[in-house]
Amino acid sequence: MLQIEPLLQKRNVRPTAMRKLVYQFLLEHDAAKALTDVENHFAKSDRTTLYRTLKTFEEKGIVHQIDDGTGTKKYALCEEDCNCEMERDLHLHFYCNQCDETICLTDHKIPQINLPEGFTAEDANLVVKGLCDKCVE
Fold it and tell me: What is d(CA 122, CA 76) in angstroms, rounded to the nearest whole number?
């Protein structure tokens, strides 16, 4: 069984009970999850606490935020050695038009894009849309 406390401590995040539960929830799902998904799972928890947990995870490089074009931000766990660096850690995301899931394809890295002089990239997001392997069947 994966020990969550050391993973959080490694990123300088105090391993509170709620943070461990949210991490476990994200770990159990292949697809990225929206704040409302987390809220629905932890129905008796405070929405602000859940939001702050996700924001802390994002700030500390535990999760990354995905804009899949649906208008709802989604969150997925980062790979263990991820630093969320533009040059090294960007990967492809896939949005399924049928089941509405967004999946990180971490084995498919986005190549570095050379911008014209004077331009500075702050974020990049590549989302491919179609049918996932479960919905194609």
Answer: 19
Query: DSSP per residue over the chain, as a string?
Result: ---HHHHHHHTT----HHHHHHHHHHHT-SB-EEHHHHHHHTTTS-HHHHHHHHHHHHHTTSEEEEE-SSSSEEEEEPPTT----TTTS-EEEEEETTT--EEEEEEEEPPP--PPTT--------EEEE--HHHH-
Q: Kindly report the backbone phi and psi dihedral angles of residue 127, in degrees, each rounded to the nearest multiple of 5, phi listed first.
A: -120, 125
Please tell me the pTM assigned to this model: 0.86
> Mean pLDDT, to the nearest integer, of 14-40?
96
Rounded CA-CA distance 129/45 in Å is 33
- Return the number of other C-beta atoms located less than 10 Å from residue 82's C-beta: 16
